[in-house]
Predict the structure.
Amino acid sequence: MSEQRPKVLATRKFPADIEARLSSEYRATLNETDRIYPPEELVAAAREHDAVMCCPSERFSREVLEQVAGSIGIIATYSVGYEHIDVPAARDVGIVVTYTPDVLTDATADTAMLFILAAARRGAECDRFVRSGGWDRWHTLLMLGTHVSGKRLGILGMGRIGQALAKRARGFDMPVHYHNRRRLPPEQEQGATFHADPADLLAVSDFLSINCPSSPETVRFLNAERIEMLPEGAFVVNTARGNIVDDEALIAALRSGRVAAAGLDVFDNEPNLHPGYLDLDNVFMLPHVGSATHETRTAMGDTCLANLAAFFAGRPCPQALT
Ligand code: 8YV
């Protein structure tokens, strides 16, 4: 009887309770060491299974999808971002793709707010200063930062996370502006000002928060030319994807003070980020942990499991992209 259970390949290590459920509900192949599958091994392993639960570390291009199509019926990605999967190609070859929206919204918006505050109040620099032993006396001009209240927050990408950040920012009395592919209805806009042209958003962004997905339209969006459109001494926050920022341009602007400070959770080619960031005091950096809370990681696993269960029961998957 147990041999009837579908075979699921878990490409990365997941929370213990999620792995326990995978093993009890399926014939699961877990990844004890969390080794990243080289592309050709990923294809070979996927072909031995009925389903894959993966992360953005695994790329499912059209070529890969065509090779695994006869075997796997579903890819459940443990992420809200899905730029690592060619979704139209998956649709063409009949593979269902599911993702984990909603459950990461609060944790990621909290991280964006943390960055706004940390960048404004020189969080990383102050921490290093205290640890260095260089703090010999308190004085009235010590590590002065910038008030966030009353400063305009520009949100690039007003999806779930952008809207959750706007809610937080309103609590800090920051007027919210945004650019999105389409204008939101008033009940979602909640008084935020829409800019159809991203250049108009940049011009009013004392703080710019990047919350859009990575796509051919957004890759290297924040380049030298667009940085020049920001107010002098603006702050930049990125919790979306590293490749939306042109690193050389942002590093130059942080060096010159054209951009006062930045908060970055994601990096192009992470974890091998541009070394130019490392010696800058005005960057507060995190190792892509925007959604890394116990609660969210478990909820992401629950979402993947619910989608796998629906798929194998012949029901529509609740978070299907295809
Ligand atoms: C996740 C993310 O931590 O969900 C996403 O798209 O970028 C992150 O918040 C990570 O990708 C989990 O697989």
